[in-house]
Amino acid sequence: MIIHIKTLSEIDSAAAKFLDAVKGYDVIAFYGEMGAGKTTFINAITRQLGVVDDAVNSPSFSIVNEYRTASGDTIYHFDLYRLASVEEALAIGVEDYFYSGSLCLLEWPERIEPLLPDDTLRVGIVINDDDSREIKF
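and the corresponding structure tokens:
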């Protein structure tokens, strides 16, 4: 499936459409070049899920951020860019998060590809020549 986002004003409706299409996935891995909009799209997803915290930011300095929805569900947001190895990911307990039953949203999942559960939803974010985005999954 492909969701097109022509302008930033469409991101919330795109996130709602995405969530309708991906029900049942606990681990969602977002692939895309630097600046593709991974964090921005994850922010829109968490808004749609009712995260009551301030704006979601890339957890670049902490590797993982934990958010709570209005209904009390937990969402884990990973930025794996700074990880040097799969062993480093194991040391922070990524597998415990993946199998917790909570939603896990991953940026830069290619850093830990061998650790991803078999049922991980892989999502590509592509920047088009006109600066629009395509969410492919």
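(Above: one complete record from the training split.) The beta strands are 2-5, 27-31, 64-68, 74-79, 103-107, 121-127, 133-136.
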